[in-house]
Amino acid sequence: MWKGRFTRPTADLVQQYGESVSYDWRLYRHDIAGSLAHAKAQLSAGLLTREEFEAIREGLQGIRADIEQGNFSWSRELEDVHMNIESELTRRIGAAGAKLHTARSRNDQVAVDTRLYCRAEIDRTLGELRAMQRVLVDKAAEYAGTMIPGYTHLQRAQPVTVGHHLLAYVEMFDRDADRLGDCRRRVNVSPLGSGAIAGSTINLDRHAMAEELGFDSITENSMDAISDRDYVMETLFCLALIGAHLSRLSEDLVLWSSAEFGFAILSDAHTTGSSLMPQKKNPDVCELTRGKTGRLYGNLSAVMVAVKGLPLTYNRDLQEDKEPLFDSFDTVSLALRVNAEMLAAMKIDTLRTRTAVGDPMLLATDLADYLVKRGVPFRSAHELVGRAVALSVSMKTPLDQLTLEQYRSISPAFGEDVHTVFDLERAFRLRVNPGAPSFANTQNRIDFWKNRLS
Ligand code: ARG
């Protein structure tokens, strides 16, 4: 399709090196949609007769149907999805097919296809994120009152609930959805009509083509339009960050399902065994999610590095954006679906969580707060409770079982009611500020999310 000036055929290795149809065939639906909008504008501009337009329309629809039924043979010699479809169209309908590429280049064509692909995939990902949030909210509701230790530095810190912990991820995935939605605004701009670099002397109605394809607006600079891959990088970043959140959740579940923690019981359907050790039940889904997140970061950095040194405008390097882009969408989609399914089936061992959260050390900060409420400056209160902790450790006596006299020996600021601090229910009741894990707050947030996600 571009061999007019060439006297020798492309070398086999070059063909093998440069073809993209083995993966960009996946853009066929968007490529055909773009061609239909383009043909329609050609008809309006009087470049095609009604008959020619109809032939193109029917031809492209036939090709789409054949591709969908697996009856289309892709040819590597034709390099990419664009030339495969166009050449098959011309083979089927003759001269009219050869008019389709008027005032168009593969440079704006691939930009249109990739934007349409991103838009469709973003919409699908948004649905999968919402489904993941729903599962987390349901699980949070199921274990809203199940108290567990919260950790900093992976050391027991303060009591929280499974509900509060899981709702933290609902917030993360909500930011992810928000970010993807924002990214979608910049994706949904039509470059069609930008041609190879400088538009065309044949002027098609760019606004009409954009509207036909559901774009919100058109690009305003032809050189930017065909060399811009910001939307690819931005999309890849959004996906990488979803990966980061999934990966942290995975790490929590790896810990929770270990014998050491024993908080979570993953279902047999979502764990695997060992070929050697009969007792093993491994959280492979979590580990794979953690591992695949590395790929998501890699895909982002692959495209960012590929773009950074390119002079304006189109350079063939840009073809390298597709495999990372496809891979990230595929990876995130599967990760969201399998993790949602695994979480829905997950159970919490409330016997184990009760034992763990029974550690009175978790309320050492509450004890300092108690002293503050009795007029002790926080720094002094911290110091006094630190001494109580040291006494508890050295006497091998749990913090809540030190006697009033022992507390008083540390400071007279400890009152007769000191032991009420170790009532866990009370500890939760007091944490009423927005964002803190009181049962009422957690329930409010669950109601908020249920409403929002319904
Ligand atoms: N397969 C190419 C890509 O994905 C399409 C654009 C090719 N343009 C060109 N002038 N060779 O980037």
Structure report:
The two termini are 51 Å apart. This protein has 454 residues and is mostly helical. α7 (106-142) packs antiparallel against α8 (162-187), α7 runs parallel beside α13 (322-345) and α11 (230-256) packs parallel to α13 (322-345). The chain is elongated and about 100 Å long. The longest helix has 37 residues, at 106-142. The chain is built from 19 helices and six strands. The mean pLDDT is 97. The protein has a two-stranded antiparallel ribbon. A two-stranded parallel sheet has the order 3-4. Arginine is lined by residues 20, 24, 80, 106-107, 110, 314, 316, 318-319.
Describe this protein with a few key phrases:
454 residues; mainly alpha; two-stranded antiparallel sheet; two-stranded parallel ribbon; binds arginine
Short summary:
This protein is mainly alpha-helical and 454 residues long. The protein has helices at residues 12-18, 21-24, 28-44, 50-68, 81-93, 95-99, 106-142, 162-187, 206-212, 222-227, 230-256, 284-308, 322-345, 350-357, 364-373, 378-394, 404-410, 424-429, 439-453; strands at 147-152, 155-161, 189-190, 217-218, 264-265, 347-348.
Distance between the termini: 51 Å
Question: Strand order within the widest sheet?
Answer: 1-2
Distinct small molecules: arginine
Radius of gyration based on Cα positions = 30 Å
Number of helices: 19
Overall spatial form: elongated
Write the layout of secondary structure elements.
Blueprint: H1 12-18, H2 21-24, H3 28-44, H4 50-68, H5 81-93, H6 95-99, H7 106-142, E1 147-152, E2 155-161, H8 162-187, E3 189-190, H9 206-212, E4 217-218, H10 222-227, H11 230-256, E5 264-265, H12 284-308, H13 322-345, E6 347-348, H14 350-357, H15 364-373, H16 378-394, H17 404-410, H18 424-429, H19 439-453
Parallel strand pairs: 3-4
Antiparallel strand pairs: 1-2, 5-6
Bound molecules: arginine (ARG).
